[in-house]
Structures are given as structure tokens and as C-alpha cells.
Amino acid sequence: MSSEEIVILEEGRFGVLAGPPPEQGSGVCVLLLNAGFIHRSGPFRLHTRLARRLAASGHASLRFDAPGVGDSIARSDVPLVQTIRAAMDVLQFRHGYSRFVVGGLCSAADLGWQVALADARVCGLLSIDGLARKGWWYRFARLRRGLAKNPVAWVRALHRRVRPRPGPGMTDADLRDWPADGLERAQFAQLIERGVSMFFLFTGGASYFLHRRQFGETYGAASRSAAVAFEHWPLCDHTFFAAADRLRLIDSIDDWMGRHLRR
Amino acid sequence: MRIEPLWIPASSPRLFGVLHVATAPARAAILLCAPILHEYVRSHRLFALLAHELCERGFDVLRFDYRGCGDSEGDAEEFLMSQADAEAAFCADFLRRRNPAVPLVALGVRAGAHVAARLVRERIADALWLWQPVVDGASYLAGLRQRDADERSSPMRYPMARTIPPGATDSLMGYPFTTRLFDELEQLAWSDAGIDAARVTLLDAGVGAASPAHARFVELPVPLSAWAEEIDMSRVAVAPIRTIADALAAGTIAR
């Protein structure tokens, strides 16, 4: 068991720092951001287990709660990107880390994207069920799924279609903190140019991601860069309910860190 | 008032805790014995906020993670109710040493009610607050197994699956689950033996024939009781928590 240390952040918030000091191991610290309202240990304790695996492989990590989540009692008007960068400042000036990987699951992937764009200390991005646009490949996959349905399912689907809805439907982009449509390609290319390594995973729980080729369609030619790892696990759910899926994720991130984020 | 994250001193394996320290000398100290499995994560924010509100009303509150849970050391496979009893006693001792002159309340949530009750039976704690206690382990387990099966077969959770993922005998509600823990939970059965009902406050949506004997009842509104039936997280409303904290603070606690 590697030792873990409590780190006091701004405004009385705190986090748990795991892994080797910056002069040992990879020198990288992974910031595990909250997945929605789930506190820092993550869905089904995923973050705690991931932190300990990464520590064993020589990578540090900090798991902590954003304002208004978990043990960070008070909400804050400070933009979240600023809050995360302040945590990076604490890790840099008090603990010596100067290279960071940011991100996580769902809203954490969205926030990680913004932090990566805003701060040059970010050298890696973890994006699990993060940004992807619906495009031709999405529509193709949806049609293919529809054709594979039995007649009863077709009737149910038609019924849902014609049933009056209480208001205008929300799109994924409405519910998520994504950049304006089309901006992501330039932002992606900017991160690649800066040397940021990226790990993208889409699960079957991401209803907006139905076909592998949506990834390239969303991010363009730069998505084929050697700095980018991409996985699509359609049989895995959004919060990694099955222990085998969590283990597979931890293995994948650990492997990616080892290949892309060495000293 | 401040929040002090800490490793419970001398605990082995190290147990993580969060101590909510009142501004003035505390009128009582409260040890929170958390629920288990998915209920621990699902309720974490609720009880962080309740601890905060109780602290504002003059209580010191210690929340801690059992071995293999949250930020404490250990693998999830190592969690056992019997060890949770010992860990709670250890944390109670730490809290008592910090607050030697005031009563100690054990607040047990769901299955954690059994952990808290043991502290009162063994005269480690002075009062018992029970939040939606699990009174019958066998039916609790049966309910969890059904919910686990429902989750595994849910087209909402697995929209791309054509077949139901196989159920695992070594996990429950997404958490590792050993045979020993299964046996311990199945044998949980509430008993009022050794507990003075005058020292018991029950917090629940209602009182039934199987409810623990108690002197005081605090009715939980739906936002504070429905969480036990849900798995997905949502924002926790603060106003009902303040009402419950007021009700708890209004009672007298004797040593």
C-alpha cells in the first residue's frame, strides 16, 4: 500500500494525494475530477482504486471535491476551471509537481477539456464519455440498431415518437459543458500541437456515441495522432457498475499513462 | 467552525475521517456510522451536509470511512461488518478523548445502525440516533440482490447489450462482496436488548412494528428518505437537512 497524504486546498477544501513525489516516478500528477455529484472516491470507489494503481506504477494523483460536491460544503461563484488551476498551484508550489493530467468521467471530462486548454501545465487529458458530436456515423448506427429491432420494439418507438412532449427536447450539448459546435476540432489540434496526450473512452452509456467513426468525425484528422488513444466499449455502462469493467478501465489508463506520460 | 480531514490516529489500516469542529466547546460529540455498499456513496453528500448543520448547532461530528471504503486503506473485498464494529469503537475512543466532558452520540445510518447500536450496548456511546435502520438483514439482502439484478438487466444502464450481463456472485450493487460479508448481513437482526430506549432517537419515514424501541421519533421528509431506494446521484436539498438538524439539536442528551 503506497502512502497517501491529505492536502489542504483553497478555502478549506482538501484532497487526498497518492503516489510518489515529483522527483520519483513519472513526475506527473493526475487530477481526478468529480464525476457529476459523486464525491472524490468516485463511482463504486473507482478513483481510489485508480489512484492506488497509478501510485504503484509511479504516477501521483489527487482526488478532491469541487465546491458544492462531497466534503466541499460551500458552493462557489469562482469558475471551476479557476478552482482546478488553483489546486494545480498548490500541488506545484507546495509539492513540486509541474505536469498534470486532468479529466475523468462525464462532467469531469468536460471540465478537464477546458482546463487542458487553459493551462499549459496540462500534459494529459482523460476523457471518459466526453465530447462527441452526432453526425452521419451516429445516424447510420442508429438506423442500423433500429432495423435490428423486433416489430414490438418498432411499435413502442413509434408510440414514443408521436406522443406529445412536455417541452422542447434537450440535446446532449444542452446538458453538457461543451464548446460551440465546430470549435472542438481547432481546440483538439491546439492540444495536439502543445504535446498533450489524450485518452478517450466512450461507453455504451453515452447515448450520443453509437459508432467508433464518430470520434474521427468529431475531432478531424488530428484524432489519428500518435498522442491520442481512443476506445469504444459499447457493452460497458456509464458509471462502470461491473467490477470487471472498472478493472479494465484501470488497466487501460495505467497502460496509457505508462506509454504516454513517462518522465 | 472548521472541517478537519484526518487519518484517525494510530488506526491500522489507516482510516480516513472528516471531523467537523464546532466554534465553541461542543455540547456533544457525534460519531457517524455510515451505510454500506452503494448507499455509502449515494448518501455521502447528505451526511456531509447534516454534519455541517449539526456542527453549526454546537456539535463536534466525526465521519469516517470503514476499511476498504471511501478513502480509507484496504481493498473493498476486506470490508466486514464485524470489523466495522471494531473500527467504530476505535473512532469513538478517539472522539471521546477529544471531547472528554460531553456526551457521545452514535448516529447509525441503514446497516450502520447495527454498528452504532453496538457502541451503545457496550457503553462506549451515550445516545443512539438511528437513521432509516436496516432491521432485518435477510430481507435487506434480498432487496439488494433484486436491485442488483434489475441494474444488470436495465436497458437504461446497458442500452447496447443484447443479452443480460451475467450476475456475479462476488459483487453486489457494484461492490465486491465476500461470502463472509454475505453471512454477516444475512444474520443482521435488530434487537433492543441492552439498549435503553430512553436514549434512542429514530429518524425514518414512518414507524412500523419492527422499528427499534425509541423515546423520540423524527419523521424524515421524502427528500431525506428516498435516497436509499435510488442509485443515481442528484443534488441534495439543504433546507430539509436544516429542519432535521434543528429537531436533533432540540433534544437533550445525557451522559
Which secondary structure elements does this structure contain, and how are they paired or packed?
The complex is a heterodimer of chains A (263) and B (255).
Chain A: E1 4-8, E2 14-18, E3 28-32, H1 46-56, E4 60-64, H2 80-95, E5 99-105, H3 107-118, E6 122-128, H4 136-148, H5 151-162, H6 172-175, H7 183-193, E7 197-203, H8 214-219, E8 228-233, H9 243-260
Parallel strand pairs in A: 3-4, 3-5, 5-6, 6-7, 7-8
Antiparallel strand pairs in A: 1-2, 2-4
Helix pairs in contact in A: 1-9, 2-3
Chain B: E1 2-7, E2 16-21, E3 28-33, H1 38-56, E4 59-64, H2 81-98, E5 104-109, H3 112-121, E6 127-131, H4 137-152, E7 171-172, E8 175-176, H5 179-186, E9 200-204, E10 216-219, H6 222-225, H7 239-250
Parallel strand pairs in B: 3-4, 3-5, 5-6, 6-9, 9-10
Antiparallel strand pairs in B: 1-2, 2-4, 7-8
Helix pairs in contact in B: 1-7, 2-3, 4-5
How would you characterize the overall build of this protein?
Chain B: Residues 36-139 form the Serine aminopeptidase S33 domain. The complex is a heterodimer of chains A (263) and B (255). Chain A is an alpha/beta fold and 263 residues long. Chain A has helices spanning 46-56, 80-95, 107-118, 136-148, 151-162, 172-175, 183-193, 214-219, 243-260, and strands spanning 4-8, 14-18, 28-32, 60-64, 99-105, 122-128, 197-203, 228-233. Chain A has one domain (4-260): Alpha/Beta hydrolase fold, catalytic domain (Rossmann fold, 3-Layer(aba) Sandwich), CATH 3.40.50.1820. Helices cover 39% and strands 18% of the residues of chain A. Chain A has an eight-stranded mixed sheet with strand order 1-2-4-3-5-6-7-8, sandwiched between helices. Chain B has a single domain, classed as Alpha/Beta hydrolase fold, catalytic domain (Rossmann fold, 3-Layer(aba) Sandwich). Chain B is of the alpha/beta class and 255 residues long. In chain B, strand 5 (104-109), helix 3 (112-121) and strand 6 form a beta-alpha-beta unit. Chain B is built from seven helices and ten strands. In chain B, the strands form two sheets. Chain B has an eight-stranded mixed sheet, sandwiched between helices. In chain B, strands 7-8 form a two-stranded antiparallel sheet. Classes of the chains: A alpha/beta (263), B alpha/beta (255). The A-B interface holds A 1, 4, 6, 8, 12, 14, 16, 36-41, 43-45, 48-49, 63, 69-71, 73, 204-205, 207, 234-235, 237-244 and B 2-3, 5-7, 13-14, 16, 18, 38, 41, 44-45, 48-49, 52, 69-71, 73, 76, 151-152, 157-161, 165, 168, 170-171, 174-176, 233-235.
